[in-house]
Write a structure and sequence with these properties.
The protein is of the alpha/beta class and 180 residues long. It has one domain: Rossmann fold. Helix content is 40%, strand content 19%. The protein has a five-stranded parallel beta sheet, sandwiched between helices. Helix 1 links the parallel strand 1 and strand 2. Helix 1 runs parallel beside helix 2 and helix 3 crosses helix 5. The radius of gyration is 15 Å and the shape is globular.
Length: 180
Amino acid sequence: MLKKKTVILGVTGSIAAYRACDIIGALRREEIDVQAVLTKEAAEFITPLSLQTLSKNKVITDMFALPEKWDPVHTSIADKAGLVLIAPATANIIGKLANGICDDLLTCVVFATKAPVLIAPAMNEKMYEHKIVQANIARLKEIGYKFVGPIKGYLACGHVAEGHIAETARIVKEAKRLLK
């Protein structure tokens, strides 16, 4: 078992944000602690209460919220990470990370951690195939970030194409591998 391991789960603004619930449940069944970081855009798709109920941890949404105790939130979260998993990952978050943009809690956590980073993209196939998105993914892979998916599946736009978030079991399997 992977006791005492913490996955920081970054949830970004995609219709696939609902899959974060499945991922949290699967990780918790493996006795892995999950700390969810919800972007402002993700909160348009899923609530902090849902993620908090499943993870049994407070969901962090705002880097500037007054802390209960003195502790810079982005670095304290980064320090406890055994893995940072971003699922779903939008083209926006991939672009920010690839270009050093650190303008929200999730990007600050990623840049402040020494833990491995696993990214599970989810987006329209035209966005995923775009040369800039592919260049950003290549850049992140070059510096050691890992990716799982996307896969061919039904997309919110009605297309069946590559861009669907990877299956939960595959994401969790890769997360467990990186936690070792």
